[in-house]
Amino acid sequence: MAAVAFILHTKDNVATVLGADAQAGEALALRGVEQGRRAPSAPIPDGHKFALAAIAQGAPVIKYGVTVGRATAPIPAGAHVHIHNMESLRGRGDLA
Q1: How far apart are CA 70 and CA 77, in angstroms?
Q2: Torsion on CA atoms 59, 19, 91, 84, rounded to nearest 10
Q3: What is the sign, positive or negative, of the torsion defined by CA atoms of 68, 80, 38, 56?
Q4: Of 32, 44, 58, 69, which residue is 20 to 30 A from 86 by alpha carbon distance?
């Protein structure tokens, strides 16, 4: 099965790769609220996210239409979004 990229809500600034790992520059079919194709700029493991547009350091990472994290570094469009460049804001007891 070829990888596809899911965009789950119109507010999302990331897409999730499902079905297989994606290679840099591989045009993935979009599913969900957008149609067409998008290519990540870096390899993206199955189940991981990539940025649909540039995300500034400190800006929210939005998936499912809700903020799931915050960028800890600038994230270029197409880049892998994971624990190396974002921190989770879900299930944390240290945030009010």
Answers
A1: 15
A2: -50
A3: positive
A4: 32
Strand pairing report for 37-38 and 14-18: unpaired
Left, alpha or beta for 83 (phi > 0: left; psi -120 to 50: alpha)? alpha
Six token digits for residue 55:
């995300």
C-alpha separations of 87 from 36, 58, 80 in Å:
29, 10, 13
Query: What residue spans of the chain are helical by DSSP H?
Result: none
CA gap 28, 73 in Å, rounded = 25
What would the pLDDT profile of 32-61 be if each residue is shown by its tens digit?
A: 999 999 999 999 999 999 999 999 999 999
Residue type, 84: H
